[in-house]
Amino acid sequence: MNLVSVIGLGMSYQDLTDQHLTIIRESDVLMGGVRHLSLFPDFTGEKIEISKNLEEIVNFILKHQASKKMTVLASGDPLFYGIGGYLSKKIGRDNIIIYPNVSTIAAAFARLGEPWQDAELISLHGRQMTPVHLERIRNCQKAAVLTDNTRTPVWLQSRLKEAGIEGFRICVLEQIGDKDETLTWISDDDTSILNFKNPNIVLLLKEEKDTKTSQLKTEINIGMPEALFHHEKGLITKSEVRAVSLSKLKLMTDHVLWDLGAGSGSISIEAHSFIKTGQIFAVEKDQKRIKDIKKNKDKFNVDILKIIHSELPAGIEQLPAPDRVFIGGGGKNLSELVECSASYMKKGGVIVVNTVLLANVTAVLEKMDQLHFNTDIVQIQVSRGHHMPWNLMLKSQNPVFIISGEKR
Q1: What's the angle, vertex CA 151, arms to CA 291 and CA 105, rounded to 5?
Q2: How far apart are CA 358 and CA 335, in angstroms?
C-alpha cells in the first residue's frame, strides 16, 4: 500500500525542499487547488483539481492508493486549518504521510519579529464568530485571526468595537508570501481603510499601557458584594450563598451552564470565573430583570453569556444540553423544573437548587431521588455585621437551603 503524501507549500514555491520536489516528481497523481497545480507545469502524471469535491477525492484515493503514488498539495501547513486533518480522518493516519511547512500565521508573526507561542489562533475563514472567540481575544495579549470575503478585517474591527474590546494594535497582512504582499497597521478605531486584498490575516497585539486597565475592567471575583450588580432590591443571590452554590456546581472551563430564574444574573456572571470556553445561558421571565442581566453582562464583559427572556420551563428546549443547572427562582413549579432540566442533562451533570421554602426542600429531594440523582443538602444562615453607635452587632438573614444532585 502506497502512503499518500500531503505536502505543505508554505508561503510560496521557494519554501519547498529538495525532498518535497522529489516526491512530487515521482508521483503518478498530483492533487491540489488550481493555483497549486499551476506551480508544476512540467508534471507528466495525472493532475486532479481539488475544490469542493473532497468526497470524490477521498473515494479516488481509496480506490487507487494500492496502485498509484499520490501527492496532495496544501497551502501553508497541511495540519493548520488545512486538508491534512481531513484526509487523516477519512483515509486513516497510517495511510498518509504529512510534510509540514510554514503556516500563514507563523509567517505573519515572523514579518513582525514577534514571538507567538502565547497567541490565540482563530480562524473565521468560512466560520462564524462566536462569543467564545470574543472572550478569547478580550483576555489575550496577542491573537491571529484568519479572515475571508465576508468576515473581513474591517468587519472584525467593527465586531471588536461592538463588544467593547479595545487597546489592540491591529496589523493586516495582505497576500502574504506573494510579490504583492502588503503590511498595514491600523488602530482599533481607524475606519479610513475599508478594503483589503484577499487572502489576508489580522494580528492583534495588546498595547502595554492598556493591559492593567483592561484587566481591572473585566475582573470577576467569587462572592462579590450585591452592590456591584444591577438588581431589583432584594432579588439577588446573596454573596455568601452565591459562593457556596458555585462550589456545589463544580464548574469546568468548557461547561454549558443553565441559570434558570436568573434574576440579576449574578450566578451567571461569577460562573464566568470558571467557564471560559463553554456557554452560559441566563433564563428569566421578568423584563426588568432581563435589563439588569444585560447591564451586568456588559459591565463585566461576559461575552459567552446569552440571555433568554422566557417563563420557565419554556425557552430551554432549544438550548444545548447542560453540564450544570442552577435554579434560584423556580417558584411553585420547582419540582417540575428540576425534572425538565434533568431530561436534557448529560450523564454526570449537576443541578443546584437554592430555596428558602421547606415545601420546596421536600419536593426537590423527592424528585431528585425519583430521577436517581446522588443528592446533598446544606443549609446556610448568614449573619452580617451591622454598625451601631459604639460597636457592631450581627443581623441574621433568612436561612437558605442549597440542594445539589448529580445525574447518574
Answers
A1: 115
A2: 13
DSSP E strands in 70-220: the ranges are 70-74, 96-99, 120-123, 142-146, 168-174, 182-187, 200-206
Residues 6+ apart with CB under 8 A from 244: 378, 380, 402
Q: Taking the CA atoms of 37, 39, 41 and 43 in sequence, report the sign of the dihedral they define.
A: negative
Phi-psi region of 148 (alpha: psi -120 to 50; beta: other; left: phi over 0): beta
Cell of 327: 435554579
Q: Are the CB atoms for 206 and 140 separated by under 8 Å?
A: yes
Q: Which residue has the cell 492508493?
A: 65
Last residue of some domain: 102, 126, 160?
A: 102
> Among 58, 27, 52, 53, which Cα is nearest to 40's?
27
Please calculate the CA angle 22-28-31 and round it to the nearest 5 degrees.
Answer: 85
Which domain CATH number covers 182? 3.30.950.10
Reduce the DSSP state of residue 128 to 3 states and report it: coil
- Pairing between β-strand 279-284 and β-strand 256-260 as defined by DSSP bridges: parallel
Could you tell me the three cell numbers for 297?
453582562
Query: CA 338 to CA 336: how far, in whole Å?
Result: 5
- Element containing residue 373 per DSSP (H, E): strand 373-380
Q: What is the pLDDT of residue 42?
A: 94
Residues 226 and 346 in one domain: yes
Q: What dihedral do alpha carbons 382, 385, 386, 390 form, nearest 10°?
A: 150
The residues pairing with 70 across neighbouring beta strands, listed in sequence order, are 29
**Average pLDDT of 46-63?**
95
pLDDT at 104 over 50: yes
Q: Which of 59, 80, 102 is the last residue of a domain?
A: 102
Backbone angles phi, psi at 4, to 5 degrees: -80, 125
For residues 359 and 229, membership in a common domain is answered with yes
What's the number of domains the chain is made of? 3
Peptide bond into 199 cis (omega under 30): yes
Q: Contact at 8 Å (CB) between 48 and 115?
A: no
- Residue 304 CB-half CA count within 13 A: 26
Flag whether pLDDT at 257 surpasses 80: yes
- Predicted local distance difference test score (pLDDT) of residue 194: 72
Of the candidates 286, 317, 292, the one whose C-alpha atom is nearest the C-alpha of residue 305 is 292
Q: What is the pLDDT of residue 295?
A: 94
Is the pLDDT reported for residue 168 higher than 80?
A: yes
Q: Which domain holds residue 198?
A: 105-215
- Do residues 6 and 70 lie in contact, with contact meaning Cβ atoms separated by under 8 Å? no
